[in-house]
C-alpha cells in the first residue's frame, strides 16, 4: 500500500497550549466526567502547561484559567451559543483543543473559529447510547446525538479512551480507526482520597460502628445495575441482619429503587444519600467495608474503583465494560458476572465474613498509587504532541481470526502481539468471545466483525472442493467483501491471518483491498487432517492469495507443497516461560494430558496406555480440556472408556482450565498423544517450559522440538504399548524425570514471545521492502 499520504514527522515539538472544553465543574455538578476533567486541568497547570478551560456554570469555586460559559438552568440553545463564544475567546492563544463532551464542543470545533486547531477528543462514553438507556427520548433525538458525536470523533486527530473496552466502542460503534485512539488510564487525587479513621467516618454518616457496610457510588440510572445490587443485598441482609448499604448519587430511578428496597424487605437497611460533597464522599469510602460497582452496561473505566481503593476499601465489581481492565490486574476474585444477583451476593458474603477475604487496606492503597495524576497528565501530553506533529513510526498490522475461543492458535496470537516491537496491532474477530476480552485486557486493540454461523461454523470434514455447502460458500463470499471494505477503511500496512478459515477469507479480502497479507498456517494441509478435496483447495489458495506464508513447523510447511517463489518462514508458536516446577510432596504420581478433547488428539490412546502402565492404582490420570467444534460426544466416550478399563476412580477429567500453569504444576509427566502428526504442539512447549518431562509421538512438530532422551521422550505414534513402557520407565526413574525436566525447561527458552516476535517483524519488513526496519515512504 502506498503510505505517502500518511502524516509526516513534524518539526521539533512546540510548547503545548491546550484549550480543554468540558461539561461542568465538579464542585457544582458532581460526576466522574467532571472530576476527571478538573483533575486533568489542574494537574496540567501544576506542571507548567498553559492550559485554559471552558465549562458550563454556575462558576463559584472554579480555579484560575477556567471560564464558565453559561448556567445549567438556561435553555440548551443559549448554553451552546454562549459556550461557543466563550471557547473561541479562551482559545485565542491555544494551539490545540481537547474536547470532553460532544454537545458543547461540537459547534466551536466543527463550525466555529476553533476548527483550524488540531483536535483531541476524550471519549468517556457513548453519549447517544447512554441517553437511550437512561431516558425515554424520541428516536430522532438519539439519532441527532449520535450524528453529533460521529462528526466530532471523525474530525479528531487523536482520541483518548480510559480503557480498551471503550476503544472497541469507538471502533465498532463510530468507525474510528484504531491507530488514532490511545488508551490512557485516569489518575486519582491521592492526597484527597486516602485512608482515614473509619470510626469517625461512620460517626459522621451516622452508621452503626459494628455493622457490615457496603457502598455504591453511582448515578441512579438503569445501566448502573443498582436493581441487581439491591437484590444481592437482600441475600446479604438475610445472613447479616445488621448489614447496611449506602447509595451515594441521584437520578431518575431513585423512587423505583426505594420502592424495590421496600418490596425486598430491606428498606431500613438501605440509605439513599443523594448527591454528596467531595468531603462526604471520602467519608463514605472510609466508612465502608466494601465498595460495589454493579454496572451492567457501558462502563468506561469506573473512577470510583480507584477512589475506593485509594481510601483502602476493597471493591467488588462486575465484568462490564472496562472494569475488568481496572480490577483484574489487582485481584480477579473481585470481579463477578454482570446482571447476576446471586453471584454478587455470594462474593459479598465471602468477603464480609472472611471466608474468601479480599485484599487488605494497604494492598488496596498500593495498587491505587500506580494511578497518580502526574503520570496520567504526562501521557495526555504525549497524545497532544502526536496531534500537533503527526508521525507514523510503527507498522499497522491487522490480525484476523474466525474464532474467539481460547484455543491453541488464538492463545499463541495473544502471547505474540504484546511482544511485537515496532508494530501497532489491531485484531478483527469473526465472533465475540473470551479471546476478545483477553486481548482487551492485554492492551491489544480488537473489534468484532461478525460472520454468520453458516460460514464460521463450517467443519473441516464438510470441506470438499467440488461439493462445498452453498450456504457456507455464500456466507464466506459476503463476509470476504465486508472484510475487504473494512480493510480499505483501516488502511493497514499488512494483514496477518491467524487460522485456516481466516486465511481463506482474509487473504482474499486483502487482495481485494490491495493490502499485502501473511497466511499463518497452523494446521496440517494433508489428507489425514482434511478431506482430499479440501486439501487441494487450500493448497491452491495458499499458492495464489497470500503475499507470504508462515508455518508453525517444517512439518506443517511441507504439507502445503508450495513452489519456491512463494516467500515462506517457519516460526514457532510463542510460549511463556513457565515458573520453575517445585518438587512435590504428594504420594500420588500424576500423568496428564492438556488440550481440547478431540479423537485425533488421542486422549483415548492415553487412557489405554495409562491403564496398561499402572493397572494397580499407583498413579492418577489427569485430562485437562473440553470439547470444541462439535466434538462434545467424545467426552462421554472417554468416560465410558475409563469405566471399561477400570480406572474411573483414578481419572480426573478437569474440563477447560484457564490457569494452565496451575494444572501443569499438578503433574509429574505430561503426555502428548496425537494420532496424526501434530502441526506444532504448543502444549508440548508449555509443559517443557514448566520443567516437566514430556512424552510425545515421534511425528510432526513435537519431533522437531523434543530430542529423545535428552529433553523429553518420543514414542512411535499410535503405539499404546510403547507409550505405556515409557511411562513405566519414567515412574521407576525419578532422577531421569528431573533431568529431562530441567533440560526441557532450558530448551523451551527458544520459544518465548520475546524470542519469537523478532522473527515475525523481520518477515514483515522483508515483505514490505524494509530490511533495516525503516518505513518505505
As a percent range, the share of helical residues equals 40-55%
SS summary, helix count: 30
SS content category: alpha/beta
End-to-end CA span: 10 Å
Please give the order of strands in the largest beta sheet: 3-2-1-4-5-6-7
**What oligomerization state is this entry in?**
single chain
Task: Report on the biggest sheet.
Answer: 7 strands, parallel
Shape: globular
Whole-number mean pLDDT: 91
| Range of strand content | 15-25%
Number of strands: 26
Radius of gyration: 29 Å
- The residue ranges in which pLDDT falls below 50 over 5 or more consecutive positions are 1-13, 772-777
Question: What does this protein structure show overall?
Answer:
This protein is of the alpha/beta class and 777 residues long. The protein is 43% helix and 16% strand. It has 30 helices and 26 strands. The strands form four sheets. It has a seven-stranded parallel β-sheet with strand order 3-2-1-4-5-6-7, with helices on both faces. Strand 8, helix 8 (226-239) and strand 9 (244-248) form a beta-alpha-beta unit. Helix 7 (198-205) crosses helix 10 (278-287), helix 23 packs across helix 28 (720-732) and helix 26 (682-689) crosses helix 29. The radius of gyration is 29 Å and the shape is globular.
